[in-house]
Design brief:
mainly alpha; Butyryl-CoA Dehydrogenase, subunit A, domain 3; two-stranded antiparallel ribbon; 7 helices; about 55% helix; transferase; kinase activity; MOB1A kinase
């Protein structure tokens, strides 16, 4: 799959209208509107956990895609020559198929690789079946965890390297709400290892303490 230029960072993954997953997404949006994010991330009664995680993963991908899209002009080869989340955390890209050995690359390149890779996973009907009754594969949970772990890195990069741009664009409330929703979701189902969350640990604690 070819890399996508950051100019075309638009979510391409749509959940088909009329499908059960579409209904789940609508449910998620309705509960989000109530303002109680802890409640909004819980598995709705009688629903399949894999399907709930799939719907939300697609939704987070689309959200992060749009958030990153607002700051792509500030995230360049020269401003961000390495993919980092502050001075202590640096990420190297490998997808295990095309790039087996992790490579050091600029943040825009890394995020382009990452988003293209996630898109390919989401479009793979054997991993993310969109038809009712098609079972999720045995390795679904590990694939979803890898996707979410990588999407977290985009939030971490935005917060550490581009928060001033986010503030100038007056997008911080949007970013914070999206990230808080993401964190509550991965915490609810234990989807990202605590060590992976370290770059934003203080922020995560702050967001969580407001909701106790």
């Amino acid at each position: 799959s070819g890399s996508r230029s950051s100019k075309t960072f638009k979510p391409k993954k749509n959940i088909p209208e009329g499908s059960h997953q579409y209904e789940l997404l609508k449910h998620a949006e309705a509960t989000l509107g109530s303002g109680n994010l802890r409640q909004a991330v819980m598995l709705p009664e009688g629903e399949d956990l894999n399907e709930w995680i799939a719907v939300n993963t697609v939704d987070f991908f689309n959200q992060i895609n749009m958030l990153y899209g607002t700051i792509t002009e500030f995230c360049t080869e020269s401003s961000c020559p390495v993919m980092s989340a502050g001075p202590r955390y640096e990420y190297h890209w490998a997808d295990g198929t095309n790039i087996k050995k992790p490579i050091k690359c600029s943040a825009p390149k890394y995020i382009d690789y990452l988003m293209t890779w996630v898109q390919d996973q989401l479009d793979d009907e054997t991993l993310f079946p969109s038809k009712i009754g098609v079972p999720f594969p045995k390795n679904f949970m590990s694939v979803a965890k890898t996707i979410l772990k990588r999407l977290f890195r985009v939030y971490a990069h935005i917060y550490h390297q581009h928060f001033d741009s986010v503030m100038r664009l007056q997008e911080e409330a949007h970013l914070n709400t999206s990230f808080k929703h993401f964190i509550f979701f991965v915490q609810e189902f234990n989807l990202i290892d605590r060590r992976e969350l370290a770059p934003l640990q203080e922020l995560i604690e702050k967001l969580g303490s407001k909701d106790r």
